[in-house]
Specification:
It is a single chain. The protein is mainly alpha-helical. Helices cover 58% and strands 4% of the residues. Strands 2-1-3 form a 3-stranded mixed sheet, with no helix packed on it. The chain starts with a helix and ends in a 7-residue tail after the last helix.
C-alpha cells in the first residue's frame, strides 16, 4: 500500500532475504537472541531509529546489529532531522516542478531496483544537497517519507518547537556514567558500554 501511494510498481518476485546477525551468527528467537521494540525503548532508542538503521541496508543482505551500529544510525538520523528543521525555518518559494520531478525519479528508481532502500536514503540526501527551493525539498521529503515512514517532518517540527535556551541540567552521576560509556566504547568494551 505504501509503494502504491507513490505509484511505484510492486516487485514481481521476492527471492529471499538476509538475516539480522550479531557476533557473526544469525540472531534467532530459539537462541534467545532477539530484539524487541520494548527492549530498544528501555535502552533509550526511539523505534524510528531502528527503522532507519534497517533501511540503510538492502533487505536481501545480512544486517549486522550492534549497539554501536545503532548509535551511528541514531547520529545520522538526528543530523538528517536537524537539516530538515533548518529547511522548515527557511521555507519559501514555490515548488519547482522540474526539479521535483527529476529528484523524485532518483527515489523511484531506487525503489524500482528491488526496493533498494539504501539507494532511496541516498536519494533523500540528494534532495538536501539539491540546488532548489526549500519548499521543493520539503515537498519531496514528505513524499518520500510516505514510503520510508521515518517521521522526518514531524521530528523536524519538534526540534524547531523546542526552546533554544532550554538546557537540561543532568545529574553528576549521569554525566559520569556517560563518560564511562564513552571510554568503554573507545576501549572496544561494548559489553560494559
Amino acid at each position: 500500500a505504501m509503494l502504491m501511494s507513490l505509484n511505484l510498481p510492486l516487485p514481481k518476485k521476492v527471492y529471499g532475504h538476509g538475516w539480522l546477525v550479531i557476533d557473526g551468527g544469525k540472531m534467532s528467537k530459539s537462541k534467545g537472541e532477539f530484539l524487541t521494540v520494548s527492549l530498544l525503548e528501555s535502552k533509550g532508542y526511539d523505534p524510528v531509529i531502528y527503522r532507519f538503521f534497517c533501511l540503510l541496508s538492502h533487505y536481501r543482505k545480512s544486517l549486522v546489529f550492534s549497539y554501536e551500529n545503532l548509535d551511528n544510525a541514531k547520529g545520522a538520523y538526528e543530523k538528517l532531522v536537524a537539516k530538515i528543521a533548518q529547511l522548515l525555518k527557511a521555507e519559501q518559494g514555490e515548488v519547482d516542478k522540474a526539479a521535483y520531478d527529476k529528484l523524485r525519479e532518483g527515489f523511484t528508481a531506487a525503489m524500482d531496483n528491488d526496493i533498494n532502500t539504501s539507494l532511496a536514503i541516498t536519494a533523500l540526501y540528494d534532495v538536501l544537497k539539491a540546488d532548489t527551493t526549500p519548499t521543493t525539498k520539503l515537498a519531496l521529503i514528505a513524499d518520500f517519507d510516505k514510503v520510508l515512514s521515518l517521521s522526518l517532518i514531524e521530528k523536524a517540527k519538534a526540534v524547531n518547537e523546542k526552546p533554544a535556551d532550554t538546557v537540561e541540567e543532568l545529574p553528576a552521576e549521569i554525566l559520569e556514567l556517560a563518560e564511562q560509556r564513552k571510554q568503554a566504547r573507545k576501549d572496544k568494551n561494548f559489553a560494559l558500554a
